[in-house]
């Protein structure tokens, strides 16, 4: 009887999971028609899935039992104090001079880029939990954002690096979509946006090395070493990208998520030097070394792309790895110092303005 009850419970859980995956809009949708044709024509799409430039085992050598245990029990993965947030206003954004290039970090990989009078949001994951359901992920470290999503002014563009939940958020897109002039995304990601109510003519999907110009700003989708997927069976079905954003006078690089590879040097040779590189630094582990960089590799990647300033992201907002929450910033500031790399360390909501002194406080050390 006990075995029968257990089997019934497991069967019910599986059934609920299947229904949730099939009916929940958070999982997005698959490409079809002309968008699918463009995917299939990409040289980066083979054997029914997108590929990295070099062989990449995204599963690494993971001991899942040990990893899950350590995720919930080991280390200071979440701050035990209220980390600082710099509040900003819509008026502050509206008053940014057209000649100024300013980047405001919203935590993790979400950033507002103001360039040449245009407002561009990178990976606007502004939700509270990076998961398809609040019970399936860890809560954001900070209770408030620098600016409430409802108060974010009209945006000229949104750029997405890939479709993982900590970068592409259903709730954020639903709230922002009618205030965004255009979305620029890797191949396949447009299908998610369309299923969430974004008008198809407001979406441009781009393959690696493709460039497009809008309002005098040149965007180029460039390679990264990672993977994609929002469900159980759709891994590698959409592309992942880094981005080059070149304005009238300033040149910005956004790494998205990426393991260290030779593509950084190739991007630097083709599109550098950069005034600022926004580089992932966090959620790494020795078990998955090919899809996320160690902090020391992030500094080397910054040198590879020939960037004047390094802005580390992908940390300080969510518990997604096994390291302590301050490990990324402690290691990368030490490495940057040893390699003479200029590193900006803003608190969430604090702007980094190209051509002006960069924020360098060690705010994560204080809990007063």
Automatic annotation (TrEMBL):
<dbReference type="GO" id="GO:0008270">
    <property type="term" value="F:zinc ion binding"/>
</dbReference>
<dbReference type="InterPro" id="IPR001279">
    <property type="entry name" value="Metallo-B-lactamas"/>
</dbReference>
<keyword id="KW-0812">Transmembrane</keyword>
<feature type="transmembrane region" description="Helical">
    <location>
        <begin position="5"/>
        <end position="21"/>
    </location>
</feature>
<protein>
    <submittedName>
        <fullName>L-ascorbate metabolism protein UlaG (Beta-lactamase superfamily)</fullName>
    </submittedName>
</protein>
<keyword id="KW-0472">Membrane</keyword>
<dbReference type="InterPro" id="IPR024884">
    <property type="entry name" value="NAPE-PLD"/>
</dbReference>
<dbReference type="GO" id="GO:0005737">
    <property type="term" value="C:cytoplasm"/>
</dbReference>
<dbReference type="Pfam" id="PF12706">
    <property type="entry name" value="Lactamase_B_2"/>
</dbReference>
<keyword id="KW-1133">Transmembrane helix</keyword>
<dbReference type="GO" id="GO:0070290">
    <property type="term" value="F:N-acylphosphatidylethanolamine-specific phospholipase D activity"/>
</dbReference>
<dbReference type="InterPro" id="IPR036866">
    <property type="entry name" value="RibonucZ/Hydroxyglut_hydro"/>
</dbReference>
<feature type="domain" description="Metallo-beta-lactamase">
    <location>
        <begin position="120"/>
        <end position="315"/>
    </location>
</feature>
